[in-house]
TrEMBL record:
Pfam families: ABC_tran. Keywords: ATP-binding, Nucleotide-binding, Transport. It comes from the Bacteria. It comes from Galactobacter caseinivorans. This is ABC transporter ATP-binding protein. InterPro entries: AAA+_ATPase (IPR003593), ABC_transporter-like_ATP-bd (IPR003439), ABC_transporter-like_CS (IPR017871), ABC_transpr_LolD-like (IPR015854), MacB-like_ATP-bd (IPR017911), P-loop_NTPase (IPR027417).
Amino acid sequence: MSLDAHPQAPAATPSAVAAQNLTKTYGTGPMAVTALDDVSVAFERGRFTAIMGPSGSGKSTLMHCLATLDTPTSGALSLGGTRVDGLNDDALTTLRRDRVGFVFQAFNLVPTLTALQNILLPLELAGAKPDNAWLDELVRRLGLGDRLGHKPHELSGGQQQRVAVARALLPRPDVVFGDEPTGNLDSTSGAEVLGLLQRSAHEDGQTVIMVTHDPVAASAADRVVLLKDGRLAGEILNPQVQQVSDALAQLGAIQ
């Protein structure tokens, strides 16, 4: 997989997502497992960040807590300056619907719906109408114009993931979370998706946070946040593939 040089990112702006002393423990007593251990980290608006670490480092748990898909045991979490820890289920559902987008490794498309119907589904569930000009721009940008009437099984893996990216971006969320978004793609399709996420951050001002195990994918980001044993283990700015590989090797990740 190869990528062009990073587009110039905009100047630093206030945090879109911030965690303070975030801890997540599963189980109790001698069987308790601490997946996150007093993690404090912030993610700036308009930046693309990769979260990496060895297996069991807590990277997926951190993303799930940041995205409000999981509830931390303790600590503070804010999204766009709004404290979200402590919100009830209805408020969290509304927040995820209106302010958070998701791109998953498995695409998570509804098999009985067309590509266009999948893209529009979150807005329809929310009873909202799409911005048609933005929809047209996304379709053009993602090269989906001749695929909108196709169902997922009629699309390649790369096309399915582009539909998932369009679905995530259409509501213009504050933050887009990617859970191994290139994990099921070939190198060419993976590079295309990473380029789209770069553009979403640098041109559209959206915050992109991606969990990945792939140093090449991570090199598309502006920043890599490293975890080990549930704790922050450093970061890399303007990452290069070899830098990321070396850092993971030092943390004990198998490459």
